[in-house]
Design goal:
Low-confidence stretches: 1-15
Mean pLDDT: 86
Number of strands: 10
Shape: globular
Structural class: alpha/beta
Strand order of the largest sheet: 1-2-3-4-5-6-7-10
Oligomer: single chain
Helix content: 40-55%
Amino acid sequence: MELDSIESERSGRRTALADGFSLEMTGKDAGALADAAGLIPPGTRVNVTFLAGEDLATRVSAARAVRERGLRPVPHISARRLRSESELAEYLAALAEAGAAEEICVVGGDLAEPAGPYADALAVIRSGALARSGVRHVSVAGYPEGHPHIDTPTLWRALEDKRAALHRQSLGATVITQFGFDPAPAVAWLDELRRRGVEAPVRIGVPGPAGVKRLLRYARRFGVQSSAGIVQKYGFSLTNLLGTAGPGRFIKRLQEQIDPVRHGDVALHFYTFGGIRVTAEWVRDDESMVTR
């Protein structure tokens, strides 16, 4: 009986992985967000990306739209795309005016050379500009499968340095990982993260339901492992690249391997690839997300 009770408790924790999920959108997705808002639980974190083709007004407008829908905006800052200290200050001030500056996600960005004074996310954090602008919580990136242009020791050192810099400024921290198709690297990375003493909450990146071709295209772009064996385990049909795939199998396998005692605070972060409503409907309906 005691063993049954323990197993039931563990099962409940595992399904709780689905609670408190977050979503990602671009600045141009504000209309799509309005269409999907009724499907998204109030208070859900919605990250607003910092794309090259979108200006400050578009990003700020999207963050404001998230807040006005009763959701929690988490605007991104792409360090290497910032052209000056004044551009960062202007962006943060505009977000604060929109009531969307409390939580920020800082990423390095994918430019080969920085457009301005910030070489990476750590430089933005160390500048002190976030805390001065009223930011209270900062998300940073994690890479369970590595980075196509940065070696693994450097990634770990950067993550630990960012966590330490945020702690010194009394800013909260969350780590959001790159998406993947195989839960094993994510779990191994979580083990190493906790072994290194980083206790920050983690949001495991999950690709929202999308066309197989689109998912594979994004995987190649971000250096995500997508061998034939991995994608077949995920649920792709390599004989039907025009079909779609959802993350249900991935999430179930992840839930089986996550141990709340060992891994701490872990939730899911959905990369929607422009399909906010489709992702929201899938989260609502798929059995892998049901907690009742």
